[in-house]
Amino acid sequence: MKKKISLIGAGQIGGTLAHLISTKELADVVLFDVAEGIAKGKALDIAQSTAVDGHDVNLVGTSNYEDIKNSDVIIVTAGIPRKPGMTRDDLLSTNLKIIKEVAKGIKKTSPNAFVICITNPLDVIVMALQKYSGLPANKVVGMAGVLDTSRFKYFLSQELKVPIKSINSLVLGGHGDTMVPMPNHTTINDKPIKKLVSEEKLKLIIERTRKGGAEIVKFLEKGSAFYAPAASGVDMAESYIKNLKKILPCAAYLNGEYGVQNVYAGVPVIIGNKGVEKIVEIKLNSNEKENFINSVKSVKDLFNAAIKIDSDLAN
Ligand code: APR
Questions:
Q1: Can you tell me the distance from the alpha carbon of 24 to that of 21, in angstroms, rounded to the nearest whole number?
Q2: CATH class of 145-307
Q3: Ligand 1 in contact with 41 (CB < 6 A)?
Q4: How far apart are CA 256 and CA 52, in angstroms?
Q5: Does domain 4-142 fall into CATH 3.30.70.100?
Q6: pTM (2 decimals)?
Q7: Measured in angstroms, how far is the CA atom of residue 269 from the centroid of ligand 1?
Q8: What are the pLDDT digits (tens) for 228-281?
Q9: Element counts in the chain: helices (H) and strands (E)
């Protein structure tokens, strides 16, 4: 039987997710949005595109949570995106309210789903989604590291004129300015990156990666990035549905790993058909450790701000 992926939020990322999933024939798709017309219109448009290439996928648009019942995977993008000059943290209070409602809908209809959160501010929203929904922490993950890593790899490939596929890399920590690109864990055709690019250039590329989202927001003016975030979300969903057991950097619940307790942060995890099957603990040097802990601290601070907005999160 075909798998079922429900997309909560049929905006820029939701629509792109639906299109990518249908071209890969990964699953049937339910596009859910409070703006019912957007969900129905995009579902119909993408459904008609499947006839061009003969893709065998069923697409439905809805604003009724009953239609997402028994989803295998749910990808959440409901919420508002950034406008120029805003940080991801500026979205907190609006998106927190939306996520509370979404979590209720998921809990009621699909308690066994693998849930991927993309709504920002990512690390805090995914943590709130897990708490509000009560789903097991290994079934609720945030999409950030795959995107941040793909930005880092893209900039490196442009700078060094090498194929993207020859680059192996990793970005850890929270999805914000404190994220931790890992040059010591970055290789090109197995050669350490530090031997191939000057320290100065590498610093610039790391900085551009950290601000990668803002660079796009500034161009778009009316919203934030959506093609690369959607591609990253599909990579995670595919690893779950096909039990690929890929190692992907994701915002995952840490319970002692990396010396951190009771918080979501970006770390490499194995995603298979049981969800987050393992958190991979790589060795960090003292500088990387300090940056990682600093990044985790900013996630914790923002989560404390979220508790002030909704005390339900304190439990
Ligand atoms: N339930 C379902 N959908 C909702 C709800 C809700 N309670 N509230 C808002 N939405 C829908 C909007 O109607 C809109 O169609 O969420 C969609 C968001 O789409 P966009 O505004 O196009 O935003 P997008 O670019 O897709 O980004 C979504 O992901 O990367 C993050 O920062 C980004 O938080 C933002 C989110």
A1: 5
A2: alpha beta
A3: no
A4: 50
A5: no
A6: 0.97
A7: 26
A8: 999 999 999 999 999 999 999 999 999 999 999 999 999 999 999 999 999 999
A9: 9, 14
